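Recall that a protein's primary structure is simply its ordered list of amino acids. Everything else, from secondary elements to tertiary packing, is in principle encoded there. The following example makes that idea concrete.
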Amino acid sequence: MTENPLSRDGKGLQFSGPLYILAPFPRPADSHLLLKGALRGSAQKKDGTVCVYAPVFTTADLAEECRVGLVPGLAAKLKPLTFPSKHDFAAALVHLATEGVTHVAFDPESDPDAADCFDISRVIAAASGTG
């Protein structure tokens, strides 16, 4: 795996390393409950569209930095979670899409426009190798 797991080239998004989300801790045994409790946000982008996004981090340090910046009660209930493979990541995104998530924001700060924010279907296709 390379140091930066996310790259963009003329072919689109490519994943080559671990990616992290903030998920409930302690971890529920049921994967649906785990993903239902994953951190997400909503924002109105500069172009006026409203998106519900799943924040995804390219390093554990960035995920942890985001976690400690949350409201203390929420921060205590979440920990970074990584996926064994990009196919597992794609499966998690498919589930999040059924929960109403429309976008993925890579390494977001307070403004999703400052992050790399992509339509979730595009990220699913890239992670599953079909896009």
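Residues 86-98 form the longest helix (13 residues). The chain has a mean pLDDT of 85.
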